[in-house]
Amino acid sequence: RWEHPKLGEVSPFKFIPIAERTGMMNALGDWVLQTACRQLKAFMDSGLELPRIAINVSPQQVNGDFIAQIKNTLQRENLPPETLELGIAEGVLVASDMKTHSFLRELKQTGVYLSLENFGTTHSPIGYLARHPFDDLKIDRSFVAECHKRPEAEKMVTALVAMATSLGLRPVAEGVETEAEYRFLAEQGVRVMRGYLFSRPVAPAELQRQLVVPWHYMGQLQRMSLDANINKPN
Fold first, then answer.
1. Is residue 160 located within the same domain as residue 103?
2. Cα-flanking dihedrals φ and ψ of residue 199, to 5°?
3. Are the C-beta atoms of 171 and 144 separated by less than 8 Å?
4. Is 130 in a helix, a strand, or coil?
5. Which CATH number does the domain housing residue 168 bear?
6. Which position has the higher pLDDT, 164 or 129?
7. Checking DSSP bridges between strand 84-89 and strand 53-57, what pairing results, if any?
8. How far apart are CA 99 and CA 86, in angstroms?
9. How confident is the model at residue 233 (pLDDT cuts 50, 70, 90)?
10. Do 103 and 154 share a structural domain?
11. What total of structural domains would you count in the chain?
12. Contact (Cβ atoms closer than 8 angstroms) between residue 144 and residue 160
């Protein structure tokens, strides 16, 4: 999100398409990469132990220059490559398969963590999952929001979790906003979730406060996890 001094909080769904249309996506993506890695290094230097930080990759960044930027940034900030997660939109796979496969293979060789975003929302063949070196499969919010309301969405989520697990990928649920969604996903075996149920976007200082004193948040999640296990059918 972009905190504009006059417009307030601006959603990336508004400014990212503009950046892509005007040819500014590479510059914006490079700024995001530098800023995220610099912030992660600051967290780590302050004593916080974080597994990784995640940024999204635009189709316009699928090139060798981006890979060089990744290597240079990690080296400059003295960060292990596994602390950086790159989210690849499903649409990237459809655009140019051979070019994308080579790009992802070289990207994975740097040691970074790769996740496939919003799988199932476009028309990518299932075979792409086995062909490309992903670590996570992100279940899109559009499925999560309906998973406890419509049988079709419930079956889709169940199938995505089973498919990810069988391929050695970690299923991750995006946009979890209610306890009903949390319980259903937990029952399906999803162990990693993100969304407003856990926290809205916060500034670095607030995130650091939550990480230093996480007991309130951990207690809430433990209660929800217990409820999910209690209600899990035999």
1. no
2. -170, 140
3. no
4. helix
5. 3.20.20.450
6. 164
7. parallel
8. 17
9. very low
10. no
11. 2
12. no
CA distances from 65 to 56, 61, 72, 215 (A): 16, 8, 11, 42
86-97 pLDDT, tens per residue? 998 877 776 556
Q: Which run of H or of E encompasses 37?
A: helix 25-45
Please tell me whether residue 7 adopts helix, strand or coil conformation.
Answer: coil
Residues 81 and 111 in one domain: yes
Q: Are residues 94 and 191 in the same domain?
A: no
Q: Give the domain-ending residue among 82, 104, 130.
A: 130
Based on the domain organization, do 68 and 122 belong to the same domain?
Answer: yes
Token pair belonging to 222: 């433990």
Q: Which of 61, 96, 130 is the last residue of a domain?
A: 130
CA dihedral 131, 160, 201, 79 (to 10 degrees): -30
Q: Where are the alpha helices (DSSP H) in 56-171?
A: 64-77, 90-95, 97-109, 127-131, 141-144, 151-166
Assess contact for 118 and 134: CB atoms under 8 A: no
**Close Cβ partners of 75 (under 8 Å, ≥ 6 residues apart):** none
Whole-model pTM over 0.90: no
User: In the numeric block, which tokens belong to residue 151?
Assistant: 């049988």
94 and 159 assigned to the same domain: no
pLDDT score, position 13: 77
Two tokens at 152? 């079709």
Structural domain harbouring 172: 135-234
Is 204 a residue whose pLDDT tops 50? yes
